[in-house]
């Protein structure tokens, strides 16, 4: 039901995959920024920030897979260039 609603408002599997890869990059950035912003604090706090953001990636990958499956079942699978292929 959530996947159908996401699909209906225009969210595609490619969007979820991009969000997953972006969250991986954001994980590294959050970890590094936490180390630099609070130099007196130990590494544990930076690790917690990195892990918090890092937990988003699997969720976005899962949504991407669910959306991809829905797109294949719905017959709206695209070739990555925006061209729709009937399945």
Overview of the molecule:
The mean pLDDT is 82. Helix content is 72%, strand content 5%. The chain has 4 helices and 2 strands. The chain has one domain (12-75). Strand 1 (77-78) and strand 2 form a beta hairpin. The longest helix has 25 residues, at 13-37. By secondary structure, it is mainly α. A two-stranded antiparallel ribbon has the order 1-2.
Overall SS class:
mainly alpha
Compute the number of helices: 4
What is the rounded distance between the termini? 21 Å
**Beta-strand percentage?**
under 5%
The largest sheet has its strands arranged as 1-2
Radius of gyration in whole Å, from Cα? Answer: 17 Å
What's the overall geometry?
rod-shaped
**Would you list the SSEs in sequence order as H and E?**
HHHHEE
Strand tally is 2
Number of domains: 1
Largest beta-sheet characterization:
2 strands, antiparallel
Mean pLDDT: 82
What does the oligomeric state look like here?
A: single chain
- Ranges with pLDDT <50 over ≥5 residues? none
Protein name: DUF2637 domain-containing protein
Gist of the model:
This is DUF2637 domain-containing protein. α1 (2-8) crosses α4, α2 packs antiparallel against α3 (43-54) and α2 runs antiparallel to α4.
Q: Which features does this protein show?
A:
rod-shaped; 87 residues; mainly alpha; 72% helix; 2 strands; 4 helices; DUF2637 domain-containing protein; two-stranded antiparallel sheet
């Amino acid at each position: 039901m959530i996947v159908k609603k996401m699909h209906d408002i225009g969210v595609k599997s490619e969007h979820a995959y991009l969000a997953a890869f972006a969250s991986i990059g954001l994980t590294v950035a959050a970890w590094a920024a936490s180390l630099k912003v609070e130099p007196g604090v130990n590494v544990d706090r930076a690790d917690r920030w990195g892990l918090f953001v890092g937990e988003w990636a699997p969720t976005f990958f899962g949504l991407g897979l669910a959306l991809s499956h829905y797109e294949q079942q719905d017959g709206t699978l695209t070739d990555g260039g925006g061209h729709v292929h009937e399945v």
